Amino acid sequence: MINQIAIFREYLKSRDLRFTPERRLILEAILSLPGHFNIEGLYYKLHRKMGRLSLATIYRSIPHLINSGLIKEVMRYADRPQYEKSLGCPHHGHLVCINCGKILEFKDDEIEKLQDRVCREYDFKPTEHRLGIRGYCKNCRHKKGK
Amino acid sequence: MINQIAIFREYLKSRDLRFTPERRLILEAILSLPGHFNIEGLYYKLHRKMGRLSLATIYRSIPHLINSGLIKEVMRYADRPQYEKSLGCPHHGHLVCINCGKILEFKDDEIEKLQDRVCREYDFKPTEHRLGIRGYCKNCRHKKGK
DNA sequence: TTGTAATTGAGAATCAATCGCAATAAGCTT
DNA sequence: AAGCTTATTGCGATTGATTCTCAATTACAA
Ligand SMILES: [Mn+2]
Ligand SMILES: [Mn+2]
Ligand SMILES: [Zn+2]
Ligand SMILES: [Zn+2]
After folding, report:
1. Of the candidates B125, B129, B141, which has its C-beta nearest A136's C-beta?
2. Which domains does chain B have, with CATH numbers?
3. Total-model pTM
4. Out of B111, B122, B135, closest to residue A126 by CB
């Protein structure tokens, strides 16, 4: 995680941007978070811990964190975009339960390979891909009703 | 397409909803559209053709069209959700060019099978899935720059 | 034709995200 | 260490898509 802070600092410097305490706090909060997160959750976490940190500042730093490769947007199914750490976190797809909201992650190299094949077929140079499956998780499908 | 109107009418009746001229016009406009569409485009198409048709009415009928299986939301990458006809349109993934905006569609049964396998592994009952790949299309990748 | 409950259009309301700006401060240069 | 330049912050105002409110209309079954 100290590593990621260094990466962020370096990224900022390379673009003539400043490494501010606010940006450091935002990144640290994200790194200490377990799974996915959204702006709202991040704001409350930071706002609770230390008094003032503007929501606008969080919104403004998200693009920088994405461009530096530290986080990525993973979903936009629901109301708000969801993000997750991307450095050191292998690419994966998501199973989203539309009943209880639980999100399962899965990794499948074969699918990734087939995606590459599709891109080759179309002479398409991919930069990002998302595979999301919605439905009912193990618990919810067996609870009752279909 | 006459078929789809019948389906919509039946769906509405089954839920004690009314088959209004506005709903018919909205569905007809969608059916006459070639590919993907969004609310804004639909509104302008309908508004141009025939004077008054409220934006609110369009927003209100989208969920009904989705629930009746006639359309589905396919993307939410960009600013606004994109929809497409779903009846008689086999499931497919999307290649979205982040330079020119072009959208290519692809179909891959092997990927679909692997997705099913993943669902089986997790005892997950899928209702919908989306595979989106962003990057540079054939033209844009060869134009200039990387 | 009548009655009832759903639907419409228009504008108001909501709410996430962005913007504008004056005060602040990061970080380079002496 | 101090000064300078320019990016950044917080705050409130603004935007813009979507939803809501409500009175007037209308589908549709009896
Ligand atoms: Mn994930
Ligand atoms: Mn499509
Ligand atoms: Zn569940
Ligand atoms: Zn392109």
Report:
1. B125
2. 1-89 (1.10.10.10), 91-146 (3.30.1490.190)
3. 0.90
4. B135
Measured at the CA of B80, the angle between CA B11 and CA A60, to 5 degrees, comes to 145
What 3 state SS string does A84-107 have? EECCCCCCCEEEEECCCCCEEEEC
Look at the block and give the residue holding tokens 């909205």.
B26
Query: To probe the interface with B, which of A122, A141, A143 has the most B CB atoms within 10 Å?
Result: A122
Helix axes A2-14, A55-67, angle to 10 degrees: 90
Centre of ligand 1 from the C-alpha of residue A102, in Å: 11
B130–A129 C-beta distance less than 8 A = no
Q: Which residues on B lie below 8 Å from A130 (Cβ)?
A: 130-133
CA distance B89 to B87: 5
Q: What letters, b where the CB count within 10 A reaches 16 and e where it falls short, cover A45-70?
A: bbeeeeeebeeebbeebbebbeebeb
A38, closest nucleotide (Cα–C1'): C16
* Cβ-based burial of B83 (10 A; exposed 0-12, middle 13-18, buried ≥19): buried
Q: A124 and B134: CB-CB below 8 Å?
A: no
Cβ within 8 Å, pair A122-B137:
yes
Q: What confidence tens digit (pLDDT) does each residue in B29-60 have?
A: 999 999 899 999 999 999 877 777 999 999 99
pLDDT in tens, A68-92: 999 999 988 777 999 999 998 899 9
How large is the average pLDDT for residues A21-29? Answer: 97
Helix (H/G/I), strand (E/B), else coil: A35: coil
- Other Cβ atoms closer than 10 A to A95: 25
For residue B121, list chain A residues with Cβ-Cβ distance below 8 A: 106
Asked if B135 lies within 8 A of A128 by C-beta distance, the reply is: yes
Identify the bridge partners of residue B91 per DSSP, sorted by sequence position.
none
